[in-house]
Design goal:
- It is a single chain.
- Helix content is 41%, strand content 16%.
- The protein is of the alpha/beta class and 465 residues long.
- The protein has a single domain (12-464), classed as Alpha-Beta Barrel (TIM Barrel), CATH 3.20.20.
- Strands 1-2-5-6-7-9-14-16 form an eight-stranded parallel β-barrel, surrounded by five helices. Strands 8-10-11 form a three-stranded mixed sheet, with helices on one face. Strands 3-4 form a two-stranded antiparallel ribbon.
- Strand 18 and strand 19 (446-448) form a beta hairpin.
- The chain is globular.
Length: 465
């Protein structure tokens, strides 16, 4: 007998994307770091595909939003591009044409009966703020971001019930300052720590602006989206446990603790002090963190992090987090070979119990989960539909563990796929496809995949349980 799943009434079944990955760079007063990077080094991007057109949401948003509704989803997360909305980054003067564009997008979401979740930063810093101020290394950029956030709240606050400040802020730290994944591709552990701090501060200050401005009067909530990557030690040895704890503190708790508790963990501070890289802060900052925790969390989950003790000591006077642990290549793990990520659906349950037991069971939702596969045209049937049974299986397994967590008291209110419609994915461009709906890059034609029909039936079944 098939096990019955459980999801609460009014559960948010949706999809997530971001405007820098779908809009294209049309009619923008500024380039984002990715617009700039893909224009000067197109060879860094799969097949040389940059952010110029992406999936052309700027011109096709009505069609796309109707398609998202047609596959049974009831909510949609996207973003507002700082580099599109704001004409004058110093004063916060807006670009009126793009003010109207985002009004039209949000209205279209609402008119289709979808709940909008609007995010304010998805790796899309205006490039001149890096060139002029050093980007997130600078507290001035923190305050400029808060000005941008305030403009968004003023313009769209009566329409949006769920706001988030950042998507995966730790990826900005990793991509720009540790692992050369994002422009400017630096390797500087000390700067990485300061950027980590400033991103936390920017989020807390934006939340303060939201509440002091009274934008919660509409019943709106504000949160942040974190990619929580559960950290599993190779063994129960003291050395492996300590290495795993360091990785968890740096990559998960460095945002999770201040976002939900209003302060960094004592262990994280001690770790930074020990290695002489404690961030610079100002006197009022601790009060800002304490008074501006999130209303809810978005949690992106794709794969676990498996850690073991360092096999050899690295003699390096420069701070780098990976100097204190090694990654453990667990035998017989299931892999998505296209993305190089382990498939481990059990971790969704572990994430849920961690939040329940250690973070006051704060309201949260799965804001991204998905499976990217290369060359999906291999799976086209005679009728032109991609038979992506692998994606259906992936979601079925993850949703089973999410249902179990909710039955056991997890305060989860939604599940969003990444992504409803195939989108541009940074340096990977369109190498791996994630959507319920495919995009032909030459014609921009959209076609619902088998998984799109599956999710509609799945949601209908849950609503009828």
């Amino acid at each position: 007998m098939e096990e019955k799943l459980y999801f609460p009434k009014n559960f948010l079944w949706g999809g997530a994307t971001s405007c820098p990955q779908i809009e294209g760079s049309f009619n923008k007063p500024h380039k984002s770091v990715f617009d700039y990077w893909s224009s000067i080094e197109p060879e860094k991007f799969f097949d040389g595909v940059g952010s110029d057109v992406t999936s052309d949401f700027y011109h096709r948003y009505k069609e796309d939003i109707k398609l998202i509704k047609s596959i049974g989803l009831n909510s949609f997360r996207t973003s507002i591009q700082w580099s599109r909305l704001i004409k004058n980054l110093e004063t916060g003067e807006v670009d009126e044409e793009n003010v109207l564009f985002y009004h039209n997008v949000i209205d279209e979401i609402l008119d289709n009966g979808l709940i909008p979740i609007i995010n304010l930063h998805h790796f899309d810093l205006p490039v001149e703020l890096y060139e002029k101020y050093g980007g997130w290394e600078s507290r001035k950029v923190v305050d400029m971001f808060v000005l941008f956030a305030k403009k968004c709240f003023e313009l769209y606050g009566d329409k949006v019930k769920y706001w988030t400040t950042f998507n995966e802020p730790i990826v900005v730290v990793e991509g720009q300052y540790l692992y050369k994944m994002h422009y400017p591709c630096l390797v500087d552990g000390e700067k990485a720590v300061q950027v980590l701090y400033n991103l936390n501060l920017a989020s807390a200050k934006a939340i303060r602006e939201f509440r002091q401005g009274g934008f919660d009067k509409y019943g709106s909530k504000i949160g942040i989206i974190l990619n929580l990557t559960p950290t599993y030690p190779r063994s129960d040895s003291k050395e492996d446990l300590e290495a795993s704890e360091i990785a968890d503190e740096f990559f998960n708790k460095s945002f999770l603790e201040p976002d939900t508790k209003g302060h960094f963990s004592k262990k994280f501070i001690e770790f930074l002090e020990k290695h002489n890289v404690l961030f610079k802060q100002e006197k009022e900052d601790n009060k800002i963190f304490k008074e501006n925790i999130v209303d809810f969390l978005g949690i992106n989950y794709y794969f676990p992090r498996r850690i073991q003790a360092k096999e050899s000591v690295i003699e390096d006077d420069k701070f780098f987090p990976d100097n204190y642990f090694d990654y453990y290549d667990m035998p017989n793990k299931r892999m998505n070979p296209y993305r190089g990520w382990e498939i481990y659906p059990n971790a969704i349950y572990d994430i849920a119990m961690n939040i329940k037991e250690n973070y006051n069971n704060i309201p949260w939702y799965i804001s991204e989960n998905g499976m990217g596969v290369e060359n999906e045209a291999r799976f086209l049937d005679d009728s032109g539909v991609i038979q992506d049974d692998y994606r259906i299986e992936f979601y079925e397994e993850h949703l089973k563990y999410l249902s179990d967590a909710i039955k056991d008291g997890a305060n989860c209110f939604g599940f969003h796929c990444w992504t409803p419609i195939d989108c541009w994915s940074w340096c990977n461009a369109y190498k791996n496809r994630y959507g319920y709906i495919s995009v032909d890059l030459e014609t921009q034609k959209r076609t619902i995949k088998k998984s799109g029909y599956w999710i509609k039936n799945f949601i209908e079944k849950q609503n009828n349980n």
